[in-house]
């Protein structure tokens, strides 16, 4: 009886010492419910609960260690996944599909190319908005290519259909652009489209700023999805910083002076002089003036000393 009860409560995760104490107090013939109540009253906890209650200790890794264990992290390193530092992506499905189809065919393959490009970069939140009527069979006036891709993306919870219905034979379509901008704005993400959404910019001043700063345009080059390396212009952020929540500032690189040691600009020179690292960078003219003033001032002090009684 003692052995069976020990095995039973050990399986529950309680320590052998606590179990022995309770059995000595209550007796070997005590009921299991009474033993369990006594263990709880003593404050004993199963091993699994104790492990959860204890704070996880930070493990230190020696600098230069080649260990690839995923549990070892640097002290102070953010334990969040790298995908958390990337912005959510909201794709204008109609714009991307028509752009890939040369504005003649709704090419679903273009949507797949765009989704795959962001997946390869590590983005986990990707949403594509397409009107619901695109699920209908293609017609001569609105051809659709590779329509099965829409079904696959919908199963993966990537594609979202915007509502549409028919009223007295006429199709009533909700404005999908509003869905795109609203979701991207709430998620603080990036809009992938070649549309400027001027009507929505005029509608809401906050959306106007957001569209201007978070619109990522693109091109298709030989079935290759290619966004620009400078989404906001030559003087704006790089593509990686544009798609990241925590942009990395580039290191400031100094260009060496073309005149080298012959440069006479001194501290006014905008270029880098490695030979002047530990010297006061003053111009040659100022240095000559300082040298000429020094002996003149010394001579005047000597004359004053001689004239004084």
From TrEMBL:
InterPro entries: Rege-1_UBA-like, RNase_Zc3h12_NYN, ZC3H12/N4BP1_RNase_Reg, Znf_CCCH
Molecular function GO labels: hydrolase activity; mRNA binding; RNA endonuclease activity; zinc ion binding
Cofactor(s), names only, from the UniProt record: Mg(2+)
PROSITE patterns: ZF_C3H1
Superkingdom of source: Eukaryota
A GO CC term assigned to this protein in UniProt: cytoplasmic ribonucleoprotein granule
Signal peptide (UniProt feature, chain positions): none
Keyword check for Metal-binding: yes
Domain C3H1-type: residue ranges: 245-276
Protein keywords: Endonuclease, Hydrolase, Magnesium, Metal-binding, Nuclease, Zinc, Zinc-finger
Coiled-coil positions: none
Zinc finger (C3H1-type): 245-276
Similarity-based family: Belongs to the ZC3H12 family.
Name under which the protein is recorded: ZC12D ribonuclease
Organism per entry: Rhodinocichla rosea
